[in-house]
Amino acid sequence: MTPESMMGTVCLDIAESTKTLFETMIMMDLKHGEASLVDDTQIKTDVIGMVSFTGKCHGVIALFCSQTFALKAASALLMTELNEFTSEVKDAIGEISNMIAGNVKTKLTAQYGDMHLSIPIVITGEGLSITAVNNHPIVAETTLSCFSKDPWLMTPFISNNEKFNIGLLLKESKK
Question: How many CA atoms are closer than 13 Å to the CA of 20, on its beta-carbon side?
């Protein structure tokens, strides 16, 4: 399985699952752009909500967004105005990431076999030190960086002039 071979149906699954979630549970209108493979070694963002999965295939589904978008999405999900980045916002981003991953998993299972999801992990902040390959510490001054040697299948979305991305790393598990 190559990233290019996944592009068609998986991109559509991610776009449909995310759009349905935001329109029915979060009550935010979304538009999505054309998905592409992002081969950057770093993806810079303020907030990452990610869920990993294992099975015949393994990988990560991640929500990459700004703190501004995270506040808007959390406020809409919780139906209360949130102005500070609190644990409630992190929990909401984790739940949104989990719901997206669950919906995508359901669609991917038919094509790639059973998968098991992890609990969601939310990473936020500025100036964090992240250890990457070969134990070289990396300090992100204003945004987080998410490293991968494999390209992310990235689907861009926009809602109320705020952009965010849903990324997917998917690989066949070795037997």
Answer: 12
